[in-house]
Amino acid sequence: MSTMLLLNGPNLGILGRREPAIYGTDTLADIEQAVADEVSEQGWKVLSLQRDSEGELVSAIHEHGPDSVGAVVNPGALMIAGWSLRDALASYEHPWIEVHLSNVWAREQFRHESIIAPLASGLVVGLGAYGYRLAARALLHVTGASR
């Protein structure tokens, strides 16, 4: 069985109660289940990791990356200045999709540029929790796993 990484950065562990007007009411557990449902038909399992520390996310990529087939990554605020996360993703040998719950371009100016997006296979923004499902579908597509 192939393993897909689902990586979530700082503050995403409190989804459901964190600014629901911006991030919605789905919890990270809800999102994890939706992503698992999306990829299960292809025989993939999901390894979901949420870390508030950039270094822990980097370690997770190094530890689990070689055994995975791809990833969906919501870096949270690390999209702005997560240089060590960017370097870890640059060395990740599989496709990955960047996802954001909110439309970052409709928000504050400092959120308008992701330093990791140029490395991603694709980007999904502004569709709330449903964006994770779309990112998982996109990952299946770019890896050739979708039927």
TrEMBL record:
Q: Where is this site: Transition state stabilizer?
A: R18
- Positions of the catalytic residues: Y23, H100
Enzyme Commission number, as recorded? 4.2.1.10
Q: Which GO molecular-function terms appear in the entry?
A: 3-dehydroquinate dehydratase activity
- The organism sits in which domain of life? Bacteria
- GO biological process annotation, one example: amino acid biosynthetic process
What pathway is this protein a component of? Metabolic intermediate biosynthesis; chorismate biosynthesis; chorismate from D-erythrose 4-phosphate and phosphoenolpyruvate: step 3/7
Q: Which reaction does it catalyse?
A: 3-dehydroquinate = 3-dehydroshikimate + H2O
Entry binding sites for substrate: N74, D87, L101, S102, R111
Subunit and interaction comment: Homododecamer.
Stored HAMAP family: AroQ (MF_00169)
Identify its protein family.
Belongs to the type-II 3-dehydroquinase family.
Q: Specify the protein name.
A: 3-dehydroquinate dehydratase
Could you tell me the gene encoding this protein? aroQ
